Amino acid sequence: MKVEVIKKRKLMFKKEFDTSFVGFMKDGAKWLVDNTDIKLVGSTQDAKIAQIFQEVILVEGLKLDDIQPGIYSVHCLPLRLVGAEGSPIRCILIN
């Protein structure tokens, strides 16, 4: 799906979950890990797929609508939550 299409749908601004949202199947996640150098993807609810993405950062609700194409350094800053397996983060891009 092209970025232009995602922008037009404005998924981040909807109050209800968009069930037409596309996610990863196990074979697609495995192919992505084995054949690309992608290190950051949107989150997945499926624990088996998340396990395939062991060395990939999963970010739920990643919003890149206003980002210009280019090479960036991505920094994800998590909150420290005692006893939690994950936390909210703030991602920043440095060009």
UniProtKB/TrEMBL annotation:
Alphabetical keyword list: Extracellular matrix, Secreted
Name of the protein in question: Cyclase-like protein 2
GO molecular function: arylformamidase activity
Keyword Secreted attached: yes
Family: Belongs to the Cyclase 1 superfamily.
Entry annotated with the keyword Secreted: yes
InterPro entries in UniProt: KFase/CYL (IPR007325), KFase_sf (IPR037175)
GO BP, sorted A to Z: L-tryptophan catabolic process to kynurenine
Name of the gene encoding the protein in the UniProt record: CYCLASE2_2
Annotated localization: Secreted, Extracellular space, Extracellular matrix
PANTHER family for the chain: CYCLASE-LIKE PROTEIN 2
